[in-house]
């Protein structure tokens, strides 16, 4: 073993970050989070090292980084220069200490869950700590992205509904290009990649290009919302199946088999549904669906900012536009909505 792993207590200690740009800022932020008093500069001068317990160099001219490394080592101050093991007296463990070799030309398609890092799988967390480049959607929270390597490139490829977003074929092409360039590519998608996430299209495009893909499942919104609300999606007495449907419209029309949905006693989980809620109600009621069936809108599930609105479909259709604050919202419909552990803070549509 060439290196000896330790965890450093930096509370109140002075630390130097030499460099500029996003990576340097992230290093400084991480050091501050650990309680260090951070000094930043982009030109090296020996005086910068005075009183320092640690020095990190990143994105600075070569000569400055070499000067920092030599001076720090002479002064017995631990020094790390990003991407230059030859200039380091210590290296940084991957955020997860399990050794892992990223296979060549593989893209990992990873479910990030509903946004809270606590709901990531261990595998997702592990891969986040390894990836060189992360392509992510709008719904990915900061707590998840903070698990990425500070020097990982982050590419935001999705935007809010109705706004412009990177077209799917451009995302596919970018994934292929990055994998071929030998980068360790992580495609991070909200919830589960294969539930209304267009993950299937990305897998097909990569397969056509001969690039291996591994899929890591994530906690999908319906599961996160139901768990947080204490609503059992199935219940022996009232619901023996769950149906995930999308409220996304094609040419302004909701393309669902309302007859089947209305007859089944399945719990219905509707994704992307708030704009098309009136069409959903009309379609279900026209097929004899019980208008008294309990339903609930859950906004920003899986986060402390969760809000919910409970009522019949009629009431939700009437109240939703004023109630919504624009966050991602899931609709749960079915007898189970009246079961489980009710949250106290939720609103009830009158
Ligand atoms: N692949 C994702 C779903 C993508 S479709 C998953 O498995 O969760 C996007 C829709 O998912 C949103 O319009 C909303 O209906 C739902 N959604 C995503 N995150 C959500 C959240 N945190 N709370 C409530 N609904 C959410």
**Percent range of helical residues:** 25-40%
What is the CATH architecture annotation of the largest domain? 2-Layer Sandwich
Highest-level CATH class of the largest domain = Alpha Beta
Which structural class best describes the helix and strand composition?
alpha/beta
Q: Report the C-alpha radius of gyration, rounded.
A: 25 Å
Please give the number of β-strands.
15
Poorly predicted spans: none
- The ordered H/E elements are EHEEHEEHEHEHEHEHEHEHEEHEE
Bound molecules: S-adenosyl-L-homocysteine
Query: What best-fitting shape do the alpha-carbon axes yield?
Result: elongated
Describe this structure in words.
This protein has helices spanning 22-33, 62-74, 122-128, 142-145, 168-180, 199-208, 221-229, 258-263, 277-286, 313-323, and strands at residues 14-18, 37-41, 52-57, 79-81, 106-111, 133-136, 153-156, 185-189, 212-216, 242-246, 267-271, 295-299, 307-311, 329-333, 347-348. The chain is α/β, with parallel strands linked by helices and 350 residues long. The protein folds into 3 domains: 14-87, Rossmann fold (3-Layer(aba) Sandwich), CATH 3.40.50.720; 106-219, 3-Layer(aba) Sandwich (Cobalt-precorrin-4 Transmethylase, domain 1); 222-349, Tetrapyrrole methylase, C-terminal domain (Methyltransferase, Cobalt-precorrin-4 Transmethylase, Domain 2), CATH 3.30.950.10. The strands form 3 sheets. It has a 6-stranded mixed sheet with strand order 10-11-14-12-13-15, with helices on both faces. Helix 5 packs across helix 6 (199-208). The longest helix is centred in the N-terminal third of the chain and has 13 residues, at 62-74. S-adenosyl-L-homocysteine binds at residues 114-115, 139, 189-192, 195-197, 220-221, 225, 271-273, 298, 300-302, 328-330.
């Amino acid at each position: 073993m060439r290196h000896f792993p330790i965890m450093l207590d930096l509370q109140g200690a002075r630390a130097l970050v030499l460099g500029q740009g996003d990576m340097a800022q992230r290093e400084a932020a991480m050091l501050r989070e650990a309680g260090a008093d951070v000094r930043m500069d982009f030109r090296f001068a020996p005086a910068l090292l005075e009183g320092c317990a640690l020095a990190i160099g990143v994105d600075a001219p070569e000569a400055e980084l070499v000067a920092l490394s030599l001076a720090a080592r002479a002064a017995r101050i631990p020094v790390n220069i990003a991407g230059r093991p030859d200039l380091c007296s210590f290296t940084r463990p991957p955020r997860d200490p399990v050794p892992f070799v990223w296979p060549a030309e593989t893209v990992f398609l990873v479910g990030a869950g509903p946004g809270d890092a606590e709901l990531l799988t261990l595998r997702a967390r592990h891969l986040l700590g390894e990836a060189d480049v992360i392509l992510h959607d709008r719904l990915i929270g900061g707590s998840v992205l903070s698990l990425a390597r500070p020097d990982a490139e982050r590419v935001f490829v999705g935007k809010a509904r109705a706004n412009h977003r990177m077209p799917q074929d451009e995302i596919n092409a970018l994934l292929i290009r990055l994998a071929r360039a030998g980068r360790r590519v992580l495609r991070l998608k909200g919830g589960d990649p294969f539930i209304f996430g267009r993950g299937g299209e990305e897998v097909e495009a990569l397969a056509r290009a001969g690039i291996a893909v591994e899929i890591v499942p994530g906690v999908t919104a319906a599961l996160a919302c139901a768990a947080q609300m204490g609503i059992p999606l199935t219940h022996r007495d009232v619901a023996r199946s769950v149906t995930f449907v999308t409220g996304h419209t094609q040419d302004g029309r909701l393309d669902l088999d309302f007859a089947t949905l209305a007859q089944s006693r399945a719990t219905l989980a509707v994704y992307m549904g708030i704009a098309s809620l009136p069409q959903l109600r009309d379609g279900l009621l026209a097929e004899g669906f019980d208008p008294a069936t309990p339903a609930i809108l859950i906004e920003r599930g899986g986060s402390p900012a969760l809000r919910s609105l409970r009522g019949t479909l009629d009431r939700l259709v009437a109240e939703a536009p004023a109630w919504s604050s624009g966050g991602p919202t899931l609709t749960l419909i079915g007898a189970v909505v009246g079961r489980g552990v009710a949250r106290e803070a939720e609103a009830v549509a009158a």
